Amino acid sequence: MQEGCPKNMVNGPCGGVDSNGKCEVDGRPCPYTELLKGKPEVLETPILGPGFIYKDVSLEIKGYSELLGKMLNGQKVFLIELEPSRRGHGLRFLDQARPFKGVVDGFSITDNPLGRVQTDPVAAAGYLRVNGFTEDIMVHLSCKDRNRASLTSTALGGLWLGVKNYLALTGDWPGFMAGPHVKPVFDLDSVRLIYMLRLLRDYELDYMGGKVKEVPEFNIAGATNPYSLWEIELRKLRAKRRAGMEFIVSQPLFSDEAVRKLKDIKNDPLLRNLPVIATVMLMRNRWDVDIVRKHFHVNLHENPDPLEELENRINNILSIDYVNGILIVFSGDWNYAEGIASIVKRCK
Ligand code: SF4
User: What residues contact 321, with CB distance under 8 A and at least 6 apart?
Assistant: First the structure.
């Protein structure tokens, strides 16, 4: 199967498969979608491949981070997504974050989304810490630019800086934004990355079984994409759960239908205990709306008051009992940061 996949997925498909089963990289039919016609249940079992030691993964969920602890106690949490800018010596990054200090439960820091080259997310997490931010941090770890050794080093580095949550992602195809000559890595996929992080935390071992003496305490999230083939997506979530995922973060949700799909997670015997964070995105202008129409085939209407639109969507989602938190994405546009912080204060 790996041979037919540009990302070398062994636990496929990745989130880049569209609802017609086409690959995001070059439009080829994704070979993993063929499994649905034969033995779809094989997608539910994590495959580690060579080079990993095998250990049992407990399904018990412990809240090492405040973020997960709050959700396990029934509290709804708010996170803000920050993109670490590569301009302004970090000052722009702080401008994004400052209005949310003491307001949100956590910051979610991206790892070169869409392959765009930005500042390292663990360095950005450290920058928040040295500037007095004490909120929980969830660092995105993507397999697109780093192999398993480098991902291990990055995760350990984050622990020194007080990172308590990692969002394990396969990652986008880097050639889209990082240039056609960049070498995609994809040594791992998200399922194996989750397992590797559980080895670190539960057994203090690296992927080969080498001892790590860091006494790491952190939690591991996985992503879900309701705009992908949903039957496959649910099966992949079960594989991630078995690999060690402890909470779920959705891709941005643009329609009520996409939000309703999250209910299937709470109806699934293997997944129902996992807290689910729903992601909402600020639609600033016609350009944002057109991107959603083009990529997600959702016919959004442009609202002249983007903040009002955002607040309405947040309140709708908060009224749903199967959602445990909200992650707000605002594309790093700090013109809106104060307004969004006010929304969070009202909604909390
Ligand atoms: S959609 Fe993802 S898993 Fe499927 S072939 Fe493309 S890169 Fe591989």
Answer: none
Would you state the pLDDT for residue 47? 95
CATH topology of domain 51-347: TIM Barrel (3.20.20)
Instruction: Give the Cα separation of 142 and 190 in Å (integer).
Output: 8
Cis peptide, bond prior to residue 13, ω within 30 of zero? yes
C-alpha 294 to ligand 1 mean position (Å): 20
**Alpha carbon of 187 to ligand 1 centroid (Å):** 14
- Taking a C-beta distance cutoff of 8 angstroms, is the pair 173, 184 a contact? yes
CB 252 near ligand 1, within 6 Å: no
pLDDT score at 90: 84
17 lines ligand 1 (CB under 6 A): yes
Candidate of 2, 32, 35, 233 to mutate for ligand 1, largest count of ligand atoms within 8 Å of Cβ: 32
Residues of the chain with pLDDT under 70: 1-3, 36
Give the per-residue pLDDT at 302. Answer: 82
* Atom number in ligand 1 closest to CA 32: 4
Domain locations in the chain? 51-347
Please tell me the predicted confidence (pLDDT) of residue 3.
66
- What global pTM score does this model have? 0.96
Residue of 195, 193, 200 whose CA lies nearest to 217 = 200
Q: What does the pLDDT look like over 132-181, one tens digit per residue?
A: 999 999 999 999 999 999 999 999 999 999 999 999 999 998 877 888 88
Query: 49 CA distance to ligand 1 centroid (A)?
Result: 17
CA dihedral over 46, 51, 56, 58, signed as positive or negative? negative
